[in-house]
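Example complex used in Figure S2.
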Amino acid sequence: MKRAPQFKRTPQRLAILDYLEGNTSHPSAEDIFRTVSKKYQSMSFATVYNTLNTLAKSGTLRELTIDPERKRYDPDTSRHHHLICVLCGRIVDVPEGVTVDLPGAMAHDFTILGNHIEFYGNCPACKKKRKIP
Amino acid sequence: MKRAPQFKRTPQRLAILDYLEGNTSHPSAEDIFRTVSKKYQSMSFATVYNTLNTLAKSGTLRELTIDPERKRYDPDTSRHHHLICVLCGRIVDVPEGVTVDLPGAMAHDFTILGNHIEFYGNCPACKKKRKIP
DNA sequence: ATAAATGCAAAGCATTTGCAGTAAA
DNA sequence: TTTACTGCAAATGCTTTGCATTTAT
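Predicted assembly (266 residues):
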């Protein structure tokens, strides 16, 4: 059995973790790179991706597929859902409400490990801007 | 006001539509290209993508983002959800069961246009192969 | 000392685009 | 004959990888 590699607390990683801590904006790799590389002018994209992949594999970070253009990252690994504003692309957390299940027939054949609801809609800011009731 | 462009029924498009008709495998662009180009040796990837994008824009086709590696396409545009087997990647249709809503507080501020549930789990074939109960 | 991470540049894929030629309407 | 589509190849954009060097442990 191969032992899991050590996770080294490099300054770059700490800076990324610091940026993600409590962040509810669901940033893309580029968002993270742009912000963190301001403090860390030597930061490279490879490091951002390597770190994100490491964190995702260890379960510290959730990779979202809700944006068809790019991966988004969510430091909140608790069970919750998301809403994407179809006008501005903003992604908002949605607390887990009712429990959703597979229809009985399928529930018998499949094993469910988790689920994720994507809501599509308009956020308050866009409704205001576009005068949508 | 610019009039919507005509949709021309080219043999390539008809072949793609024919392949998608009733198809529940949620194929990627490459799946479609591979199959359709057998009949149509001149078929190009650009044509596949152009057609898929045209169909998606017209609402004839649904683009799925459930697979983080690539877009998948679903000719079934009725309201339903999906289950992805985390072992084999197969995507299976899930009929719409209970209605899911935003929590009351958010429901007041956001306008919801739709939702999509992604279930993650194991399909019967993989359960059998891996002896998962 | 050792194992792992960084940073760079190059490579890898999925997807898009420009354009000249071709075909549907 | 007009308008749109095809096919090619080149371009784009996100993400990954190889490797020499550096750093955390």
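The longest helix of chain B spans residues 45-57. The mean pLDDT of chain B is 93.
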